[in-house]
Design brief:
Elements: H1 3-9, E1 14-20, E2 23-28, E3 34-36, H2 40-46, E4 51-54, E5 57-59, E6 64-68, E7 77-81, E8 86-89, H3 91-105, H4 110-115, E9 128-130, E10 142-147, H5 151-164, E11 168-173, H6 176-184, E12 194-199, H7 204-214, E13 224-228, H8 235-241, E14 246-249, H9 256-270
Parallel strand pairs: 10-11, 10-12, 12-13, 13-14
Antiparallel strand pairs: 1-2, 1-5, 2-3, 4-5, 6-7, 7-8, 9-11
Length: about 290
């Protein structure tokens, strides 16, 4: 019996599955997640009792702890699993699944539902930080977008831009959804020259953000670098399969500023970029 067959046969232990390109992460309540080389659609056909709440998420209803309806018309709903993980319900699927998901919630006490507030970041609200002011930048400024939740690492990322690349500005996002929404609403000429994804572990959020960038015909040309602090299994292969341009294993905060500097020097100075992404500052680019 193959590993995939064993996992499917032991489906009661699975809390949810998340897809990334032709790979699927299988998540368990008390065991480490497993990366398998099968698309999410395969598992959807093998696990008919599971519910597809998003194009990248398939959940086991037995592990639903709480359901958060959309707060606004254009916001996704949210499911909180017993593991504590929070997953978005796509707007298109919410109306189809509302009744089904409510049934799974009926055994939960009302006071438990109200006791824990779902963080607003899961509702796709834009949380961004402008590191360089508009007045300090030349008219021809270019942007870097970065998904990073660690304040110390944010500081090092922004310091590198301030000190050596003053013709760039950097915009931070607290979640991948906000980053993608900003890119979608940005004019072509104002798209970032470089995207940085800084994560502790490779999981659904990072892979979904990476895949969203690289599956878009306009965004796929933008160099995307992912920093990983805790590598496991086939993380590197999965990131490259999803379209990452560079995967950097970086566990030490003490050397992080040096690593970031090398990334900047390569992608902003030496690498040949598409015409609309080229620096118009002092950096020298290969054409």
């Amino acid at each position: 019996m193959t590993q995939i067959q064993e996992i499917v046969n032991n489906s009661a232990a699975i809390t949810h599955l998340t897809g990334a390109s032709n790979y699927t992460w299988v998540h368990f309540l008390s065991e480490p997640q497993v990366l398998l080389s099968k698309p999410l659609t395969y598992f959807e056909s093998q696990l008919p009792s599971y519910v597809r709440i998003h194009k990248t998420s398939l959940i086991n209803p037995a592990y639903i702890q709480r359901i958060q309806p959309p707060k606004r018309a254009k916001s996704p709903g949210t499911i909180v699993l017993k593991s504590g993980e929070q997953l978005p319900i796509s707007r298109r699927r919410w109306l189809e699944l509302a009744d089904l998901l409510t049934v799974a919630q009926q055994n939960e006490k009302p006071e438990d539902v109200l006791a824990t507030k779902v963080p607003e970041l899961e509702n796709g609200q834009l949380e961004e930080e402008l590191i360089q002011s508009e007045q300090a930048m030349p008219l021809s400024k270019q942007w870097l977008f970065a998904f990073c939740q660690d304040e110390k690492r944010r500081t090092k990322i922004s310091q590198g831009i301030h000190e050596k690349w003053p013709h760039y500005a950097i915009r931070f996002f607290d979640n991948g959804t906000s980053l993608i929404e900003k890119m979608i609403g940005t004019a072509t000429n104002d798209l970032p020259t470089l995207v940085l994804l800084d994560v502790r572990k490779v999981g659904w959020a990072a892979m979904n953000t990476l895949e969203s960038i690289k599956s878009n015909k306009l965004f796929c040309r933008i160099p995307t670098v992912i920093f990983i602090r805790e590598l496991a299994g086939s993380d590197v292969e999965a990131c490259y399969a999803a379209g990452a341009n560079s995967v950097v294993r970086q566990s030490s905060d003490e050397t992080f500023d040096d690593v970031v500097d090398r990334i900047y020097r390569y992608w902003l100075n030496f690498a040949a970029l598409p015409a609309n992404l080229r620096s118009n500052g002092t950096g020298t680019l290969i054409k």
